[in-house]
Amino acid sequence: MSVKIAIVEKKLSGEMKTIHEAIWNDTQISALDHANYLLVDGQEYEMLEGRLNVNSGLLEILVAAVIEDRETNKTEAD
């Protein structure tokens, strides 16, 4: 079985933007139970929630970009 998914980013402004669409197999869908974050084109996103759109047959995964705080990642040598 396969499912069409859309990864939808919720921006700080409240805007929603589809950043990825694909057909996923059962194994990929099952992996969602074990992950809290996704990587899309090198950007890390936190998964917020999922929604099954019955009318379009689409599993929508709502995500928010992870913004790295460079100050907390500095070493004491800096």
UniProtKB/TrEMBL annotation:
This is Uncharacterized protein.
